[in-house]
Amino acid sequence: MGGYRLHIFGLCLVLANISQAVKLVKTNVTGPTTYIGQADTVRFDQTDYVIARFLGIPFAKPPIGERRFQKPEPAVVTDTMYDARRFKSICVQMSKPSSPCVSRQTMSEDCLYVNVYVPLSKLAPTDVAGDITAINGSLTTGLTGSALLLPAEKKAVFVYIFGGAWIEGNGNCYDGSVLAGLGDVIVVTFNYRVGLLGFAATEDDVIPGNAGLWDQILALQWVKDNIGIFGGDSGCVTVGGTSAGSISSLTFGLLPDYGQLFQRMIPMSGSVCPMKYISTTGYGTTLSGAQKLGCDTRGSKQDIKSCLMNQTAQSLAYAIPEIQVPFGLPIATVVEAPLIPTHPCELITGDVGMDQTKQQALNKFGQKDLLIGIVSEDGESSYQIWSFVNHINKTANPFISMEILTQMIFDFFASKYNENINDYKYIIDTAIDRYLDWATVKDDAERSNQVVALLTDLFFKLPTVDAIRAHEQRASNVTSRGKRYLYRLKWPRTSALYQQYIYKWFEGSEHDSDIVYVFGDVTDQVDVAISKVIMTYWTNFIKTGNPNNGSVNSLTKWDEYSVNNPCYMDISSTAELKMGLGEDSRHFWNELIPNLKSQLDSRFKVGAETVKDCSRNRAGGRRSFQTLVLAAISVVWLLV
Would you call 364 helix, strand, or coil by DSSP? Predict the structure, then answer.
């Protein structure tokens, strides 16, 4: 989910040569009395926007020393004046040459900071200089001068949670300036702990677990308590994110104890299903990482924690555990009370018994507005994870062979049924037949692109549709119903940089490719047009819960999704409303395959019982043979 990949978005923005400090007076009595930010102009599609950045504001005490692995504590800032003109450190993580933004950042365990982007005005280029002067008034050098006067009307807020498979990523790499300026919304990004530093767990109080997720919740609480200082409306907050950040935003929406921190959700390319994306074996993951660090895992949990506490932060960041389940992630959030008492996927699918109180609480999910979707070839991220874990890229041939593909499909089912691979021959063959053209099966590039299509269906498209269908079901139980919208994004061309550094054979839109459009980090005219459409839809939704409101009149009307009207916005060089995203795949995987498995099980069970009868009573041999023949005929009939 966003890990092991090339981050090609530098988010380099075209700024005017006007940049001055701005002073924001805090009106409440606790914390700093004044924040010092930076006013800048940013240009997008030949329009200049004036924004103010407030960077590196602490929302939690530094998780260092004895606070390593622990739930974060709210920050205590006593400065009367706080300089928020520069980014602070990002959390310690793997650093790769292919991640230029990360390589430019300073890493530290002291990393829990938020960044706030505030829109000020929308001007023609000739008016910018005068406007900046008016904003700053008599502001002089340093941290003195007049205060920034924000508009009386509170602005809607978008809080973006970064992705990176809970192993990498940071909020500093996502500049919210263009999105804030064009959409007239406040944008907030932040850092949270990743890797073992954020998600080690012993499933008890020794290492409580989900520290990185608790970081996210505390950041959302900071927004609720403080965003009014920056002109934001704490009652109009949208939480969204990509990949792992998408999973987080949807998880919080499903948990009523934390859903009260926001009113809308924009999960992009990530859902709480399949089950394996959220772990139930946090201690197993921690043991695997501890073993890589040379810790004696035969001792007590306290001994293991002591060993981990003695490791450097960098060593912990590079101690990537083995994957515990097929197609899982090396690091994952953990089902663990009180934060995640029930697996969120069970709440989506309804595969859990809940009393009336829990049902009523979950109905709050249906009260929130939801805009959710995927990128057309999101499954390439799962392909990359599989490649990384199995060291495929270290061989001369980096392609997934037919043998590996067979094992991959079995692994997906084995996580449910835990049976022998031979029991799945017909299931596997049926799945392969759906996706592969046997005439080109020896073409490595063609086969690999079709594997990406299979993985996109299983791990992105179908779970996303399941989530929006569950939202509709929950909304039907409440009077104040949230609205829901579904989308698919497809680039009009494949990223040349991606093909150069990752997979030369890849065709389509890679996972995370939507980020540059959401934040306006594009320069090509076709991309600029797509980005403007997306930012307009997104910020209209952030402000009103409806992507069609505001200045979207010239764009395609986006109808609300329902089971009876399964429409989605297909966004490419144009935006077109289409019907039935993934409906054919949904029928295949959710109905045909389970029914085929059930029928095969019953047929083989009949055959096995007949063989037992035959061994006890030879007189029944002829009848047993007939039964076996009938069972075989039934199997053949099912597969025709």
Answer: helix
SS (H, E, C) 594-615: HHHHHHHHHHHHHHHHHHHHHH
Predicted confidence (pLDDT) per residue in 469-513, tens digit: 999 988 877 778 899 999 999 987 777 777 776 788 888 888 888
What is the C-alpha end-to-end distance of the chain, expressed in Å? 37
Evaluate whether 287 touches 297 at the Cβ level (below 8 Å): yes
Q: Which residues contact 498 (CB under 8 A, 6 or more apart)?
A: 6, 8, 506, 510, 513
Least confident of 339-348, 361-370, 441-450, 595-604: 595-604
Residues facing 116 on adjacent strands: 54, 188
What is the distance between the alpha carbons of residues 295 and 283, in angstroms, rounded to a whole number? Answer: 14
Chain-centroid distance of CA 92 in Å reads 20
Token code pair at residue 545: 């819960």
Residues acting as catalytic residues: 243
Three-state SS annotation for 510-548: ECCCCHHHHCCCCCCHHHHHHHHHHHHHHHHHHHHCCCC
- Nearest residue to 94 (alpha-carbon basis) of 200, 14, 179, 194: 194
Only one residue has tokens 């009949």, namely 606
Query: 69's torsion region: left (phi>0), alpha (psi -120 to 50) or beta?
Result: left
For residues 138-162, average pLDDT:
63
Nearest to 518 by CA among 66, 112, 183: 183
Residue 234 neighbours by CB distance under 10 Å? 16
Distance CA 378, CA 459 (A): 8
Buried b (16+ CB within 10 A) or exposed e, 357-374: eeeebbbbbbbbbbbbbb
- Number of other CB atoms surrounding residue 141 within 10 Å: 8
Neighbouring CB atoms inside 10 A of 28's CB total 10
225 backbone dihedrals φ, ψ, rounded to 5°: -80, -25
Distance, CA of 180 to CA of 116 (rounded, Å): 10
Which value, to the nearest 10 degrees, does the dihedral of the CA atoms of residues 96, 44, 247, 301 take?
40
The rounded distance, in Å, linking the Cα atoms of 598 and 600 is: 5
Residue owning tokens 């023949």:
629
Q: In the chain, what's the furthest Cα-to-Cα distance? A: 106
Q: Which residue spans within 401-508 are E strands per DSSP?
A: 484-489
For the chain, give the mean pLDDT.
79
**pLDDT class for 603, splitting at 50, 70, 90?**
low
d(CA 570, CA 572): 7
